């Protein structure tokens, strides 16, 4: 199974992605975690990435593809699938991923789970997460910027994936167990293990 978790920052992509990956025995690939690891490794690429992340800007496409494609290929080889969280984030990335990952590497997505959560709830969630996890990139200013970037750059993906027939919309403004149950129910109607 190959899935994408789509939603604004703080919508629960990571939480539900990890849980689904464990249940289906596949790999959860968080683009944010991959980027934070590269930054923590303090390589030249990591230092360059740190600037984008600190501002809440999107990382250039070529860098993301270079980092993520090998991880996706390895996940499919080792477990038969993956759950991508936070990639692709723009229409241009989605179109490129469809060609370079879906067609060229035969790794088309089975479904795209789209989590919808109001902005005020997202801000509160991300501020809480910043305190709990010590994430310096989750300040009010950066959160507001990240939400604006999501609205401008990522939100159009909902229509793109709807037109491709793989979109699974889910109300993410519910208790986590209810959201997860809705995701599982929707996926059960679309894909099999």
Structure in words:
This protein is an alpha/beta fold and 193 residues long. The chain has a single domain, classed as P-loop containing nucleotide triphosphate hydrolases (Rossmann fold, 3-Layer(aba) Sandwich). The protein has 9 helices and 5 strands, in the order E-H-E-H-H-H-E-H-E-H-H-H-E-H. It has helices at residues 13-24, 31-40, 44-55, 61-79, 91-103, 119-133, 140-154, 157-164, 176-188, and strands at residues 2-6, 27-30, 82-85, 111-116, 167-171. Helix 1 (13-24) crosses helix 9 (176-188). The longest helix has 19 residues, at 61-79. The chain is globular and about 40 Å long. The mean pLDDT is 91.
C-alpha-based Rg, rounded? 16 Å
Number of domains: 1
Give the CATH class.
Alpha Beta
Please state the overall shape, judged from the principal axes of the Cα atoms: globular
